[in-house]
Amino acid sequence: MPATAKKPKRTATRERRRQQLIDATMKCIARKGMGSTTLGDVASKAGLSQGIVNLHFESKDNLLTETLRYLADEYKTQFNHALEMSGPTAAEKLHALMALDLRPAILDRRKVAVWFAFWGEVKSRPTYRKICEKSDEYYDKVVRELCDELINEGGYEHVTPGAITTALTSMTNGMWLSCLISPKSFDRQDAMHAVDEYLRNIFPQHFPL
Fold this sequence. Notes:
The protein is an all-alpha fold. It has helices at residues 2-32, 39-46, 50-57, 60-85, 90-100, 109-119, 126-154, 161-181, 188-202.
């Protein structure tokens, strides 16, 4: 019994250490870039020894992969939560997802810097590409289905769900980049206003003035 009782505590400690190291990795990447970040940097930022980093992740590649996986899982959780908490209509759900990408918890400059660092590596890193593609495919499928529902409801014949999904994704990605490189001039309300204007132009019956 004593050994069994201690196991959850050890597991919790292990998970806490892993999360501590992943958080430190994101801070290091945001500050130094992916190529310049070392296991020593991560250990120092986390306030732990490099041996602890090696114990939990074994290599820098594993640590980076798990960091990307954490970002993707975190975004998916927020994405699904936004869907669940939105109104019942396709228009309300689509608007909630667009607003999600501009929330401070998601559009955080440190996280955005890390996302762009990984996106810059996907061509040469199949593992990164697979994680990003899986995340994008899930996101695009949901948005495309919502757009398809709106098109059918409103009889919008001049647009296709795929094109709208691509446009919306490009808009929010561009806003993430603007926030990253021009934080002083970036305004979340203006960005959301631009999204709303686009949705009103595409779906006037569902997003009236």
